[in-house]
Amino acid sequence: MAWDYNDRIKELFSNATNQTESSHFGEMQNPDGVGQYGSISCGDAIVFYFNVEKNIENPLKDRIVKASYLTFGCTSAIASSEALCIILEQHKPTPLEALKITAQEIVECLGGMPDQKIHCSVMGAEVLQIAVEDWANKRGINLAEAFGKEIEVGGEILCDCYDLTDQFIRTKIYELDLKTLEQITDSTKAGGACGNCRQVAGGIKDILAEVNGAREAKSNKQMKEILPLEIEHLKERVESFFQTELPVELASLRAKATFVEFKNGVAYCYIQSSGGGCPGGDLEVKSLIETALQKRVSSSIRVIDI
What we know:
Helices cover 48% and strands 17% of the residues. The protein is α+β, with helices and mostly antiparallel strands. The protein folds into three domains: 7-145, Sufe protein. Chain: A (Alpha-Beta Complex); 157-226, Arc Repressor Mutant, subunit A (Orthogonal Bundle); 231-305, 2-Layer Sandwich (GMP Synthetase, Chain A, domain 3), CATH 3.30.300. Strand 4 (157-159) and strand 5 (164-165) form a beta hairpin. Helix 4 (103-109) packs across helix 5 (118-138), helix 7 runs parallel beside helix 10 (204-226) and helix 11 packs across helix 12. It starts with 6 loop residues before the first helix and ends with a strand. The relative contact order is 0.09.
């Protein structure tokens, strides 16, 4: 089947296959972090490498400065790997900061991709975590302790065909806001072969119901928090934040955010960042705005860049 890829994906794939100067395809010698994810027998596999600029006094302040990969798979898998390298080299995060990069950010950096290929971006986020774990071991760091919470690994194998755990599937349903069994298969491959893991007790269908139930309960709680507030006053407070407080926050990032409207607990705005064409820059600004609004105005406010 011929997929309808956008120009961004085609460009990154072409750069990789033609080994252009901007491509990140290739093995890295003496990497500070390396991870492997997937299986060639299942269709896609990736080996991911990164180097850090080491901080002699505190390894937690190491910063990722270079990334590369060897990907065996389709156009989307290779383009997703390229996008991950771009995000890392553009922002130069610490390895712990890199753990916050999601599959959705990779998709947005690519300008979107077919639903049936979202699992390729999931591969990128997962292999990055494995590479960060390798870096942590080499630097003598307890990753869960340093990150401030347990890293979501482990669990029991649920999808035997693709060697996927129940914990992995649960995490991806939540992260990617998946609502149907078909979306789960498109995004992770889980249940896409024999399908036995879909309907069994404790299987994908049950996990989906569990996550959706928790999500609905959280949403109801957030609405209860916002209802006692006078909506008009809240809107004025959000608008004031964008006009007076936010410009100071964004000055160091050379970014701007224009307030559009506030509706149903969501602040809609137009973000302009110095991200050099990759939506990863806009995502960083969006995250900063959302965190600031939740701290200063209401913990239930979300931000959408339009």
